[in-house]
């Protein structure tokens, strides 16, 4: 019965993934909002009692499913970005200035603020840090309404025309991997004890080493696949000429696998691989075809996860939620992230006439639309696997509530705000 229900949920997700985007395109309602609501309604029906919904008992399944959703989204995000980033060109780095400020200033402030709120609410230091690390990164999965639409091809001088969407997209692509070192702070606090015993290891390996390994792995895999697809001397291997877009799946799986096997952050490897591949033959239509495959797979997997999440919400997932969890989740969405974002973007900002510059309304929008989603669930499941004491019911309830609250708040506001701030309107 349970297996049959899984097929039913998967089929419903596929159907909704096909019809919802067009049906909801003119309304301030997002597909994630609808899926969570439908799931909650399904959860109120007399379903079998043995459904695999308990996060404690099904932690490994949650970890692997959410992991897959995130890496598929990261591949799509990396392929969608038109603005180049050359390691040897300082000018290209300046054009990403808003992204760097959100990552280097906004994200640590958010982690620290949420961790402080969690510690004040009575959490142990390790659990408080984990809560901050789980909820700090914006999500590439649920943020499609505020991200760039896809790669623009056919023009040798492609670049992003919408600075706001570019900032939100590039931030979501990078901060999932960059939040991992702080997840390891929580794990090390829970398993290794005093900070003095592992501080140097954390800085040298978890903060620097694993980031470098992930980035290098992504660049190497991306360049190898780009050479294969576009420039191989063997015509049968030049898959770009045939338009074989399933290479996107091979790229995301290979880059993630290489990054993880070498000991780096696989999320960074996937995003870097996609960016590197995108830099080859930038105007080629093949990038759009690959992006479409990643986007469709991401949409299907996301809606499936959200439907299951909605079912779990009304089947006991929020039983441990109390006023502290509600207060922390709402404070993050309405206060902490907006203030951290504006603190990162407002000082030292570039002129809005320059690439990488945002107007003041765009700065506030970029600060506010820090969508939380599937990545938060993955980090919690991963940490609970490394240190079981970090997988308490209260954390699951609080993180799940925050994800749903973000889906609702950002889903309602994304369409009207983004339409008002479109470059063509300003």
TrEMBL record:
Protein's membrane topology: Multi-pass membrane protein
Origin: domain of life: Bacteria
Keywords from the named record: Antiport, Cell membrane, Ion transport, Membrane, Transmembrane, Transmembrane helix, Transport
The UniProt record lists the keyword Cell membrane: yes
Cation/H+ exchanger transmembrane domain boundaries: 15-419
Cellular compartments annotated: Cell membrane
Keyword Iron-sulfur found: no
Signal peptide start and end residues: none
InterPro entries reported for this sequence: Cation/H_exchanger_TM, Na+/solute_symporter_sf
Parts of the chain that traverse the membrane: 6-24, 31-48, 60-81, 102-121, 178-200, 207-230, 250-277, 297-317, 323-344, 364-382, 394-413
Protein name: Cation:proton antiporter
């Amino acid at each position: 019965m349970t297996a049959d229900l899984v097929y039913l949920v998967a089929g419903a997700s596929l159907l909704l993934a096909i019809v919802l985007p067009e049906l909801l395109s003119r309304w301030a309602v997002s597909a994630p909002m609808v899926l969570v609501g439908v799931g909650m309604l399904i959860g109120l029906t007399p379903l079998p009692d043995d459904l695999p919904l308990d996060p404690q008992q099904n932690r490994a399944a949650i970890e692997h499913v959410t992991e897959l959703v995130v890496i598929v989204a990261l591949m799509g995000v990396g392929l969608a970005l038109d603005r180049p980033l050359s390691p040897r060109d300082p000018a290209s780095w300046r054009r990403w200035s808003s992204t760097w400020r959100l990552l280097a200033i906004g994200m640590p402030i958010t982690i620290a603020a949420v961790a402080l709120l969690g510690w004040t609410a009575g959490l142990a230091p390790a659990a408080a840090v984990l809560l901050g690390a789980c909820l700090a990164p914006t999500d590439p999965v649920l943020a499609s309404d505020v991200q760039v639409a896809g790669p623009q091809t056919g023009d040798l001088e492609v670049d992003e025309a919408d600075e706001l969407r570019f900032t939100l997209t590039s931030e979501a692509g990078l901060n999932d991997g960059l939040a991992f070192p702080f997840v390891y702070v929580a794990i090390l606090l829970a398993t290794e004890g005093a900070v003095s015993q592992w501080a140097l290891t954390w800085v040298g390996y978890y903060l620097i080493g694993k980031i470098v390994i992930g980035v290098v792995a992504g660049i190497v895999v991306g360049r190898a696949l780009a050479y294969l697809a576009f420039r191989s001397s063997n015509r049968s291997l030049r898959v770009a000429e045939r338009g074989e877009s399933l290479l996107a799946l091979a790229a995301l799986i290979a880059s993630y696998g290489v990054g993880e096997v070498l000991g780096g952050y696989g999320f960074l490897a996937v995003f870097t691989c996609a960016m590197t591949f995108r830099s080859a033959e930038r105007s080629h239509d093949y990038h759009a075809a690959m992006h479409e495959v990643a986007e469709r797979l991401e949409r299907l997997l996301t809606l499936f996860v959200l439907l299951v999440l909605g079912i779990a919400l009304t089947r006991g997932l929020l039983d441990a939620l109390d006023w502290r969890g509600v207060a922390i989740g709402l404070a993050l969405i309405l206060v902490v992230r907006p203030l951290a974002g504006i603190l990162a973007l407002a000082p030292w900002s570039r002129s809005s006439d320059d690439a990488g510059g945002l107007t003041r309304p765009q700065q506030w929008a970029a600060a506010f639309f820090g969508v939380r989603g599937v990545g938060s669930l993955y980090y919690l499941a991963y940490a609970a696997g490394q240190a079981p004491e970090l997988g308490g019911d209260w954390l699951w309830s609080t993180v799940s509530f925050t994800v749903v609250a973000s889906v609702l708040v950002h889903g309602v506001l994304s369409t009207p705000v983004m339409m008002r701030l479109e470059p063509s309107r300003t």
